[in-house]
Structures are given as structure tokens and as C-alpha cells.
Design goal:
Layout (H helix, E strand, L loop, with lengths): L1 H19 L2 E9 L10 E4 L5 E3 L5 E6 L3 E6 L6 E5 L7 E5 L9 E3 L5 E3 L8 E4 H5 L7 H4 L7 E5 L8 E5 L12 E4 L2 E3 L9 H4 L21 E7 L2 H4 L10 E6 L5 E16 L12 H8 L2 H11 L6 H6 L3 E13 L3 E13 L6 E14 L4 E15 L13 H5 L26 H7 L1 E21 L3 E22 L13 E24 L4 E26 L9 E26 L3 E12 L9 E11 L11 E15 L10 E6 L2 E6 L2 E2 L7 E14 L4 E20 L8 E24 L3 E19 L12 H4 L1 E2 L9 E6 L2 E7 L4 E11 L3 E11 L2 E4 H9 L8 H7 L8 E3 L2 E12 L2 H4 L8 E14 L21 E2 L6 E11 L1
Parallel strand pairs: 1-7, 13-16, 32-35, 42-46
Antiparallel strand pairs: 1-4, 2-3, 2-5, 5-6, 8-9, 10-15, 11-12, 13-14, 15-16, 17-18, 17-47, 18-19, 19-20, 20-21, 21-22, 22-23, 23-24, 24-25, 25-26, 26-27, 27-28, 28-29, 29-33, 30-31, 33-34, 34-35, 35-36, 36-40, 37-38, 38-39, 40-41, 41-44, 42-43, 44-45, 45-47
Helix pairs in contact: 6-7
Amino acid sequence: MKKQYLLLIILFLIGSFSYAQDRVIEGQVVSAIDGLPLIGATVVKKGSTSGVTTDLDGKFKLDISKPEILVVSFIGFAEKEVAVNPDTSGEITISLEEDITRLNEVVVSGLATSVKRSNLGNAVATVSSEELTGITNQPTLDNALYGKVTGVNITSSSGAPGGGIAMRLRGVTSITGNNQPLFIIDGVYVSNDEIPSGLRNASGANSGNEENASNRIADLAPSDIENIEILKGPSAAAIYGSRANAGVVIITTKRGKRGETQVNLSQDIGFSTIQRKVGIGQRDWTAALVESEFGAGEVARYTEALNGRGLVDYEEEIYGETGLISETRISANGGSENTKFYVGASLRDEEGIIKHTGYKRASIRANIDHQLNDRIKFTTSSNFINSKTQRGFTGNENEGGLSMGYNMAFTRPWANLYPDEFGNYPDNPNAAGNMLLVRDKAINDEDINRYIQGASVDVNLWETDQSFLKFKWNGGFDTYSLETYVYVPEYHQAQRGLQNGFIAVGKNNIFNTNNQGFLVWDNYLGGGSLQLTSQVGYAYITFSRDLVYNQATQLIPGQTTLGQSGTQELDQTLQNVKEFGYFAQQEFNYEDKLIGTLGIRADKSTLNADQNQFYYFPKASLALNLANFDFWNFELMNQLKLRAAYGETGSSAGFGSLFTSFQAVNIGGSPGISVGGLRGSEDLIPETASEFETGIDMTLFDNKLSLEASYYNRNIYDLILQRALQPSTGFGLEVTNLADLQNQGLELALNASPVQNENFIWSSTTNFWFNRSKITRMDVPPFAPAGSGFGLGLGTAFIEEGEPVTQLKGTKDGEVITVGDAEPDFQMSFFNSMNFFKNFDFSFLIHVKQGGNNLNLTTFLTDLAGLTGDLDDQSGIDRISNPNTERFIEDASYMRLREIALYYRLPKSAVNVFNGTIKTVKIGASGRNLWTVSDYTGYDPEVSTKGGAGLSTGLDVNPYPSTKQVYFHLALEF
């Protein structure tokens, strides 16, 4: 018996020894769609940090000493688990299916960590490069997001080429502050400012936000983007602290891939035309009608026009151009095992639908990834942009004679505004300016040179099979010089005898920096069943603005420079902000069944009254993946996840709110200063938002159908407003925290893949969302915020406790009433993508907005002039007979075909004639905003006369009209 025991012990030891010997498992990862190898796929032992990536042939080698579960993943494909053991012989082949539901998509969970979408505790919207630009040419990034993300409301402040977009994530978050999200590109905090040109000083517009300046995110070339992640509320964005009240948009640009160099060249040619005309002056004119409207003296002018040039459709004359659009893009990417690169360049040239307006953007990008050794990796992202924009003169003004739409509203079709044989333009007999002179001779240009530089360093400090400790640093800077130039000739009729010519030159320099450092510890416990990810770090951010504005009037005839003038004015604004924060976050994941996060950020800022006081922003989330538990046996449902999240973010006061203002005085020729009307606050604290979000995610029928549903309740506290003071204080106003605001909403996203076979692939996404707001506290009487309307007589946004922050007030029979609400009842989008016989791609996006009101003051002006096209109809007669504000309120609902495209990929047999030089050829045609159904009578129901900041939606005053565009595409891969 003893010999038998001894033999068993020896055999056990031999087996244990052989079992402990590492065996090399060899395999290849391929796509189940076409069998091609997947380069750079990740193969990791489940429950550990040990793994490899596949080589140029999709192959890998991995040492194992015991039975293991290999987790195989690749971007765009569903994750797969494969069981192996040391006895496995030969090469194994692992096929990955396309990840239609995007459950395996990796998204941001912290400043230095990420998580699979299937494990998220809150809703994070993502937009891929294919979704962003794969259908049609996109002029700007924010334009490209229309209708593609739930919870996002996008409104154009100008249809002019080169931007002018207001983006809101889950409603309005500030009354006087910024409502645009924070944009981060490859780890760099970038500016999305709108910087006015000073045009209002000639046009008589009320404020800088009526100048319809470009917003600077328009500088980024959409073709450079790999994907976008949108953190719509504090529950997701809390880790970004005091810059995240309005949400965060995280942009990742394209990077190199290991393998031979791949070159892509594409050329788009397009055309833009006005989306719709409103028919200014297009009434059924007769001599009798002219006399009844304008008196007997006008009939002679009308008759003279009929006998000469005829009646002029000035809307067609000004807005009737067909703008040519050209965009050329070239990129190359590739790399070795240690170094990968992506370089790209693009040139866009877009003509406007008004002569002498347009947009040119040249962009050059270089992204480098280098693995220095087994432990150190660094990346750089460099982007230079030059853009030139001719904005034209549109929008609101007060008799400055510059806004083409404003003056067109009063110009009768028989007025002759064309130049004579000597090039002299006649005065406009009906308005303060001749639109043709302004179009042909006045200038309103922007010129920008911008450089964005990002970098990151990853250092693996310590690693075992079950844990690793990593240090990560990233940061960079965003700097640009923006020059604006406005010129109005001295012979312009509104200039003569007053300014006698106007020049405004802006020299604006922006320099923003940020850097963050993190320690990340990833640890697997319980045999790999529990994953703990910890991170701590800091963030340091600076913002510097130097805005120089020069203005000259009383010009020497024919001169166009500042020095050739009789009166000059110089103004300079310097702004410097520094912010510093700490953060910590702990994530845990129990077998992809229970996933949770706890985190906190502490920030201080020079914008706060106490610059050394930290404000704290916590976050917490929990996700329960019921379908991953052992008891789950409902085979039709692949995923059922319940989730809940809470977070807080902040927003500091605008620069200068802390300080008492001074104003310049000149007494007896001696310059000095005196106390201004605004008193600074010593107790000002940041606006703070807290959000609770809950939701459910499910997928069914082998991942062919998925639903994501989210409800949120966001409360914004301590809104910063101005309060009137008693005259005895010596001041008129002070800035302080005076109100609270609530936003609640629902977001639904349904993704389906009804058909997936060799000859036909069809995927579809339906989005639905709405938001409801309410002012829950106000320590001041109800008021109309400055710059948010044109008074109660014409209509304005109005802040009132217990009412929506987006309500519009006006008067009826002398009483102040609510006349509308700019907030939509709901929005929907319907996206479909189809592939036929592997060579044809067809896709379209339909966007629906139901409800929401606009104040159509373009019609108000044409009513005043008697030129609105419907004044011969009963609807127009009823409107002008109504003396109350409500006559300008219109329903801004619409259904719009946002995008549609058809592409054809040449078969390999056709491409082979190029002897392998060209790998693929793709041709196609597409369109943007080709079809709109709406009862709205203005140029576009998406309108924002007051620019992108503040309460800007719902006001329509002579905007640059929106356009519809058609493109033809050619793309080559070498």
C-alpha cells in the first residue's frame, strides 16, 4: 500500500509540474464578415491584466500554464470568450461578429479610465466617424450632430457658411452664463467662443450677440474625428467639475494603425441654395393696391418700374445665389509595432448664397503614437487651422442700413437699387440702406490662425498577472489669433452726415492650457471575479484672452484703414483665469454583473469670490446586469441592465463679476476714472448642478434589437443674476446668486438590425427625447434678461418663478401674458443604413421637432412695411389687425430630411485595372436638408438671432437664411 501511495504522489507531482509549465497558445483573430485578419485585436486572460494584441496578420501568441478563458475584443466587433488549456495544439481561429448594438464599445468613465458600454451606470452618447461624416459632407462639427443624439438641442444663429451654432445638452443650465458644453479634443480643453466684430457700432444692433459671429468649434475639420462622446449631465460629467455644468463633449481624432501605410484621398463637390424664401414683397401688386398701401404719389414709381426694369424680387437678388462647395481631403496612416502615425490635410471652400460671402478652411493634422519600451508610451496630437470667413451683413439692427434682411423688409419691389453706368448706387427710398451696395462694397470678415497641441504619457509603474499601477499625464494648449475687419463706405446713405464711413478692426488672441496627472491602479481579486479600478489625480487649467478692438469713423473718402480717419477709438480687454482641482474615483466590477463607481472632484478658481476655497462635486453610479447572472434563462433577451447615477458639477461666474466696475471720464482735458454702475460681490459662489439619472438598457434576439431608456432630474442652484440696488448705495446693480432652476427629461434610443445576410444588411436607429424646465426659486422680481428679446411689446424671454426658463412673454390688451415657449414638446430622429450586394450603401436621417415657439419678427418688419407676402390673404389680414404680441408667435415644429446618401463601391475586378495602386474606389451623391415640412413662415424654424450663449433660441430677425446642399463624392484608398 505504501508503494501505491508513493506512486500516486509521484504521479501527482509530475502532473502538477507539467501543468505548471507555460505553453504557448497560437491563434488568429479574423472578421466573421469577410474572414480578413483583425490587426490590433486584444486577447486577454479573463480576470487578469495579462494579454497581447494581434500582429499584421491578425495572429497572436500567449503563454498559459492552466486552463484559461481568453477575452478577445476589437473596436466595432462583439467581444468573445474562448476557453483554452495548455494541451491545446495547433493554431486556433477566433471569428468576431460585428458589434451592431455597440455593447462592447469602450467609453469614458473617468479622466484616465474607460469602461464597456454594457457596464455603464449612466447614459453616454457616442457618435462614430461613420455616423458623423459617413453619409454626407458636413461643414462643421456641431452641424454634423443635428438629430443624431438624444437630449441635444441644436439651433443655428446664422445660416452663413462657417458656423454660428447653439448647442444645448438637456436644456438651459444658466440664465446669464454659458449654456454651451465644454469641448475637449484629444485631452485639450478648447475654446468655443463667439467673439463679436464690433459691427453693432455701425448697424445699431443692441448687443454683440446679435452680430452672428462664428463659434470656434467650427474650426475643427469633421473628417479628422474618430468618435465623439457626449456627457449630457452632471451624473456623467461630475469628474470634470466646475467646467461641466452644461455638459462635456469629448472628441477623439483619428490615429494610426499598425501595418503598411494606407493613403486615403477624397474629393467632394457640392452646391447650396436657399432652403426656402418667405416671399418679401411678392404680393399681387396693382396700381390700386399700391395707392391704397402707400398713397397716390407711389403709383408713378410703380408704373415707371413696370415700364422699365419691372418689379424686382430682391429676395431672389440677394439670397438667390447657388454656392459652390469644394472639399479635398487626404490622409495617411500606418506604423510599426512601436510607432504609429496619422497625418491628414483638408481644404474646404464654401461659397454662400449671398454674393461675397463664404468660408475657407485649411486644416493640417499629425497624430503620433510611440511605444518607447515595455513600460512607457507617449502620444502627440497636432492640428493647425487657417480659416477665412466672409460673414456678410444680416440679422437685427436699428436703422444702420447694413442688415440686408432688415432693409429688404422695407424695400418695395419697384425701387431701383442697381448701380448706374458709373458704378454709383442710388439711395434706398424705402429703408436706411441699399442692400446691393452693402453686399458689393461693405466688408465683414474673420481671419483665424489656430494651433491645438495635445500630448500624453503613459507609464506602467508596476504590473503582475492580477494588477497593475499606471501613471498617466496628458495636456496641451489651444491658441489662436482671430482678426476681424468691418468696413462701411463713407458714401453709404446711413453714414453720410453721421459716422461718414466706419472701420472696425479686431485683434484677438486666445491662449488656453491644461494639464492633468493621474495614478491608476487596476486590481483583480477573488480569482479575477472582482475588478477594482482606482484613480487619483489633479488638473490645472488656464484661460487667457487679449481682445483688442479698434474703431474709426469720419473716413477720408476712398480710404479703408484706421489711420485715414478723423475719429478713432481703442478698447482692450484682458482676461486671465486659473483653475486647479483634485479628483479621486473608485470603480468596481463583479463579473460584469454588478458595476459601481464613486468619485469626487474638488475645484478652485480665480473666478470665485474666495479664490482659495475648494468646491466639491461628487458622483456615484450603479449598474446591475441581470442577464449576466446564473439564474437568467430568458434566451430571447441578451442583456437587461438597470442603472442609476448621481453627480454634481459647477459653473463659475463670468470674468469681472467679482469686481466693482469703473468707467473712464474726462474733465477739463484730464483723464480719470469714476465708479461705474455695477458693484462686485464678495459672496459670489459658483452655480451648481446636481442630477439624478436612472435608466434601463436591454438587447434582444441575438443582439438584433436594443433599447436604451433614461430619465433625468437636474437641479441648478445659485444661478447668478444681476440685482437692482438702492440709489443711496452709489450703484445701480450687483451680481449675486439669486435663483434655482430644474430640468427634467426622458431619452429613448431604439437600435435594430432587422436583416443581416450576404446580400442585404439593414440597421436602424430611432431616437426620442424631451426636456421640461422650471424656475424653482427667485429672490428678485420677474424680469426679462438683457439681450434675450426686444421688450414685452415685441416679445422676450422672461424669468419667472414657477414657469419654464424658456417661456416667451408679451402683451395683450396692455396686460403681460405668456405668449409661448421656445422649448420643443419633443424631438425624434429616424436613421436607416442599408447595404445591397456589398457594393451599394444607402442611408438617410429624418429629424422631427414637435412644438416650441418662435417670435417671428422678420414678419413683424415686413408687416410694418406692407410687404409681407400673405397680406392679400385672410391670414395676413387677421395678423395685422391684431395689436398684441401673440400675432408674432408661430409654431416652430418641423419634419426634415437631414441627410440622405447613395454610394457605390467599385468591385475588385474594376479596381484591379490600376495594378494594385488603388485598393478601393467609392463614388456617391448625398444631400443635406433637402426636404422640410413645416407650417413656420420664416426662413427656418431653427433660429437664434441672439447667438449661441444665454437664452438665445426662439427669436427670428432677418437671419442669414439656412441652405440645402447637394454633394457628389469620390473616395480612393491606396
